[in-house]
Specification:
183 residues; mainly beta; six-stranded mixed β-sheet; two-stranded antiparallel ribbon; 2 helices; 10 strands; 12% helix; elongated; binds zinc ion
Length: 183
Protein backbone atom coordinates (compact mmCIF):
# COMPACT_ATOMS: atom_id res chain seq x y z
CA UNK A 1 0.00 0.00 0.00
CA UNK A 2 1.21 3.47 -0.92
CA UNK A 3 0.61 6.71 0.94
CA UNK A 4 0.53 9.86 -1.14
CA UNK A 5 2.82 12.36 0.56
CA UNK A 6 2.86 15.08 -2.12
CA UNK A 7 0.83 17.41 0.13
CA UNK A 8 2.97 17.09 3.26
CA UNK A 9 6.27 17.25 1.36
CA UNK A 10 5.65 20.93 0.65
CA UNK A 11 6.53 22.16 4.12
CA UNK A 12 8.41 20.91 7.17
CA UNK A 13 6.05 20.12 10.01
CA UNK A 14 3.09 19.17 7.87
CA UNK A 15 1.42 15.93 8.78
CA UNK A 16 -1.45 13.78 7.67
CA UNK A 17 -3.47 10.89 8.96
CA UNK A 18 -4.62 8.09 6.74
CA UNK A 19 -6.35 4.72 6.91
CA UNK A 20 -4.28 1.69 6.09
CA UNK A 21 -5.25 -1.55 4.39
CA UNK A 22 -2.28 -3.74 3.64
CA UNK A 23 -2.56 -7.06 1.83
CA UNK A 24 0.31 -9.46 2.49
CA UNK A 25 1.40 -12.49 0.51
CA UNK A 26 1.78 -15.85 2.23
CA UNK A 27 5.26 -16.45 3.59
CA UNK A 28 7.41 -19.33 4.79
CA UNK A 29 8.11 -19.00 8.50
CA UNK A 30 9.82 -21.62 10.64
CA UNK A 31 9.23 -24.30 8.02
CA UNK A 32 5.48 -23.70 7.78
CA UNK A 33 3.36 -21.52 5.55
CA UNK A 34 1.89 -18.43 7.15
CA UNK A 35 -1.19 -17.11 5.36
CA UNK A 36 -2.80 -13.72 5.65
CA UNK A 37 -6.35 -14.24 4.47
CA UNK A 38 -7.54 -10.69 5.16
CA UNK A 39 -5.74 -7.38 4.78
CA UNK A 40 -4.26 -5.75 7.87
CA UNK A 41 -6.13 -2.55 8.61
CA UNK A 42 -5.42 0.42 10.81
CA UNK A 43 -4.30 4.00 10.75
CA UNK A 44 -1.08 5.86 10.11
CA UNK A 45 0.17 9.33 10.82
CA UNK A 46 3.01 10.69 8.79
CA UNK A 47 5.05 13.81 9.53
CA UNK A 48 7.43 15.82 7.42
CA UNK A 49 10.56 16.20 9.58
CA UNK A 50 12.52 18.03 6.93
CA UNK A 51 15.16 15.57 5.78
CA UNK A 52 12.86 12.63 6.40
CA UNK A 53 9.30 11.50 6.94
CA UNK A 54 8.22 9.84 10.17
CA UNK A 55 5.48 7.24 9.96
CA UNK A 56 3.58 6.06 13.04
CA UNK A 57 1.36 3.14 12.20
CA UNK A 58 -1.03 0.84 14.03
CA UNK A 59 -2.55 -2.18 12.36
CA UNK A 60 -4.68 -5.15 13.29
CA UNK A 61 -5.20 -8.37 11.46
CA UNK A 62 -4.72 -12.07 11.71
CA UNK A 63 -2.43 -14.82 10.49
CA UNK A 64 -3.27 -18.39 9.67
CA UNK A 65 -0.59 -20.48 11.38
CA UNK A 66 0.14 -24.16 11.95
CA UNK A 67 0.07 -25.06 15.67
CA UNK A 68 3.53 -26.24 16.74
CA UNK A 69 2.03 -28.99 18.93
CA UNK A 70 -0.90 -30.45 17.01
CA UNK A 71 -0.04 -29.09 13.53
CA UNK A 72 -3.62 -27.92 12.97
CA UNK A 73 -4.09 -24.60 11.21
CA UNK A 74 -5.60 -21.88 13.38
CA UNK A 75 -6.07 -18.11 13.27
CA UNK A 76 -3.83 -15.93 15.43
CA UNK A 77 -4.97 -12.33 15.92
CA UNK A 78 -2.09 -9.90 15.53
CA UNK A 79 -1.67 -6.22 16.15
CA UNK A 80 1.39 -4.09 15.58
CA UNK A 81 2.33 -0.50 16.30
CA UNK A 82 5.58 0.95 15.07
CA UNK A 83 7.50 4.03 14.01
CA UNK A 84 9.48 4.09 10.81
CA UNK A 85 11.51 6.79 9.12
CA UNK A 86 11.56 7.24 5.36
CA UNK A 87 14.32 9.08 3.57
CA UNK A 88 13.88 10.19 0.01
CA UNK A 89 16.14 8.31 -2.34
CA UNK A 90 17.90 10.74 -4.60
CA UNK A 91 19.50 8.48 -7.19
CA UNK A 92 17.24 5.96 -8.88
CA UNK A 93 19.75 3.11 -8.68
CA UNK A 94 20.62 3.54 -5.02
CA UNK A 95 20.53 1.11 -2.15
CA UNK A 96 17.13 -0.32 -1.35
CA UNK A 97 18.07 -1.92 1.97
CA UNK A 98 16.90 -0.57 5.26
CA UNK A 99 19.34 1.07 7.60
CA UNK A 100 19.32 1.71 11.30
CA UNK A 101 19.27 5.26 12.49
CA UNK A 102 21.66 5.22 15.45
CA UNK A 103 20.25 8.52 16.73
CA UNK A 104 16.60 7.59 17.00
CA UNK A 105 16.92 3.80 17.11
CA UNK A 106 14.33 3.55 14.36
CA UNK A 107 14.84 1.72 11.12
CA UNK A 108 15.12 3.89 8.06
CA UNK A 109 13.51 2.96 4.76
CA UNK A 110 13.61 4.74 1.47
CA UNK A 111 11.00 6.19 -0.80
CA UNK A 112 11.07 8.05 -4.03
CA UNK A 113 8.69 10.47 -5.66
CA UNK A 114 5.48 11.45 -3.91
CA UNK A 115 4.50 8.06 -2.55
CA UNK A 116 5.66 6.02 0.42
CA UNK A 117 5.16 2.29 0.01
CA UNK A 118 4.48 0.87 3.46
CA UNK A 119 3.86 -2.78 2.51
CA UNK A 120 7.44 -3.96 3.17
CA UNK A 121 7.76 -2.29 6.55
CA UNK A 122 4.33 -3.54 7.62
CA UNK A 123 5.33 -7.09 6.63
CA UNK A 124 8.60 -6.81 8.56
CA UNK A 125 6.80 -5.73 11.71
CA UNK A 126 4.13 -8.42 11.35
CA UNK A 127 6.90 -11.03 11.04
CA UNK A 128 8.42 -9.78 14.28
CA UNK A 129 5.02 -10.14 15.95
CA UNK A 130 4.54 -13.77 14.92
CA UNK A 131 4.85 -16.24 17.79
CA UNK A 132 8.02 -18.37 17.72
CA UNK A 133 6.02 -21.37 18.89
CA UNK A 134 2.51 -20.98 17.49
CA UNK A 135 -0.13 -22.61 19.69
CA UNK A 136 -3.78 -23.10 18.71
CA UNK A 137 -4.57 -22.84 22.42
CA UNK A 138 -2.48 -22.45 25.59
CA UNK A 139 -3.45 -25.96 26.66
CA UNK A 140 -3.20 -27.68 23.31
CA UNK A 141 -2.63 -31.38 24.05
CA UNK A 142 -0.58 -31.92 20.91
CA UNK A 143 -0.07 -35.20 19.11
CA UNK A 144 0.65 -38.55 20.76
CA UNK A 145 4.38 -39.15 20.23
CA UNK A 146 3.69 -42.87 19.67
CA UNK A 147 0.63 -43.10 17.45
CA UNK A 148 0.37 -39.50 16.22
CA UNK A 149 -3.28 -39.05 17.16
CA UNK A 150 -4.44 -35.51 17.89
CA UNK A 151 -4.95 -35.68 21.66
CA UNK A 152 -7.27 -32.65 21.55
CA UNK A 153 -9.84 -35.04 20.13
CA UNK A 154 -9.53 -37.39 23.08
CA UNK A 155 -7.13 -39.99 24.44
CA UNK A 156 -5.63 -42.32 21.88
CA UNK A 157 -5.53 -45.52 23.94
CA UNK A 158 -2.07 -46.53 22.84
CA UNK A 159 -0.67 -45.30 26.19
CA UNK A 160 -2.35 -48.23 28.02
CA UNK A 161 0.71 -50.38 27.32
CA UNK A 162 2.61 -48.12 29.76
CA UNK A 163 1.20 -49.97 32.74
CA UNK A 164 2.41 -53.40 31.60
CA UNK A 165 6.18 -53.02 31.62
CA UNK A 166 8.15 -55.79 29.94
CA UNK A 167 9.30 -58.11 32.80
CA UNK A 168 12.85 -58.25 31.39
CA UNK A 169 13.04 -54.46 31.55
CA UNK A 170 11.72 -54.54 35.10
CA UNK A 171 14.65 -56.77 36.13
CA UNK A 172 17.10 -54.40 34.48
CA UNK A 173 15.56 -51.43 36.26
CA UNK A 174 15.93 -53.24 39.61
CA UNK A 175 19.60 -53.94 38.91
CA UNK A 176 20.28 -50.32 38.04
CA UNK A 177 18.56 -49.14 41.17
CA UNK A 178 20.72 -51.32 43.50
CA UNK A 179 23.36 -49.39 45.43
CA UNK A 180 26.97 -50.10 44.47
CA UNK A 181 28.18 -52.89 46.86
CA UNK A 182 31.89 -52.04 46.38
CA UNK A 183 31.83 -48.65 48.02
ZN1 LIG B 1 -2.59 -27.24 18.74
ZN1 LIG C 1 -1.13 -42.74 21.06
Amino acid sequence: MRIDVADIKQEIGLQKRTDLSVTLESIEFGGAEVRFDRPFTGTAEIWNLGDRLLLKAELQGEASLACSRCLRRYTEPLSVAFDEEFVERQDAGGETAEEDNAESGRTVSFYSGDEVDVTDVVRDHILLALPMKPLCSEDCEGLCPRCGKDLNEGPCGCGESDESVDPRLAVLKDLLRKPDSHS
